[in-house]
Amino acid sequence: EHQWSPVRSTQCYDRSERYLFWNEPLTIALLTLMSITISLTCLTAALFLKNLETPLVQASGGKLNLFALFTLMLLCLSCCLYVGKPSNNLCMIQQVVYALCLNGCFSTFFIKSLEITLVTEFPRCAPTFLHWVTQRRAWLLVALCLLTECLFCFCYLHLGPDYLVSDYKSLPTEVLLVCNTESWFAFGLMHGYNGCLAFVCFLCTFMVQTSGKKYNIARGITFAILIYFIIWIFFIAIFATLKTVLRSVTQIGTILTTSLGILGTYYIPKCYIILLKP
């Protein structure tokens, strides 16, 4: 099975391995987009750090923004895990890194969403509970969200992580090396938690109204989560059916579009205000 023969030939040739190579034009284009996204994330983080004490940055989450941008940068860097020759360990790490980095960003959105809900929907209870979602205790909630995701990642690794498959049927002259999902239940458990966090953020923010002259921080979270859901609908449909190198391309594309969506809807508008309308 590791060899092939041309039609009407008596000679056999060894199959070459097929995966997403570093020097492919498509890979170079994706890595260029990754570099641009990381640069935007770093510039945004630097701007937020410089204006950390301003009312807008403080209202947006203060230092939690820097943590969220750091996890977004790590998420973009994880694109490199999908390029090159895969292995069992690499297949296993890919999904775990994606889930943890995205959870780090969504946990900060979750805290901000709870704060917005308390202030707008439950103003009488706000003074009692606001200290749980602001300042130092907010970091405790972030740690709790990450710890919960770590437990789901452990379940994923225990129940059935992704593993390397050598596919001899899809291509006539090559052996396709692709990561295959062993347990869809474990996969859904790990990524479903992030989906639940995102859904709670969406529920907490999409009904918040402010007057025309006030900046609506909740709207940025709403649009970021909407983009995440739309991307994931397409991702699941494609990821479950593809068994080619395009599977890796799909995962890289999902990471980059999610990161750019979050940057473009939540962080870039704030940069615009900081720079041009302080």
TrEMBL record:
Keywords: Glycoprotein, Membrane, Receptor, Transmembrane, Transmembrane helix
Limits of the G-protein coupled receptors family 3 profile domain: 26-278
Pfam families given in the database record: 7tm_3
Transmembrane parts of this sequence: 28-52, 64-84, 138-159, 184-208, 220-242, 248-268
Gene Ontology MF terms in the entry: G protein-coupled receptor activity; sweet taste receptor activity
Transmembrane helix listed as a keyword: yes
Protein's GO biological process: sensory perception of umami taste
Subcellular location: Membrane
InterPro entries: GPCR_3 (IPR000337), GPCR_3_C (IPR017978), GPCR_3_Ca_sens_rcpt-rel (IPR000068)
Keyword Nucleotide-binding set for record: no
Protein name: Taste receptor type 1 member 3
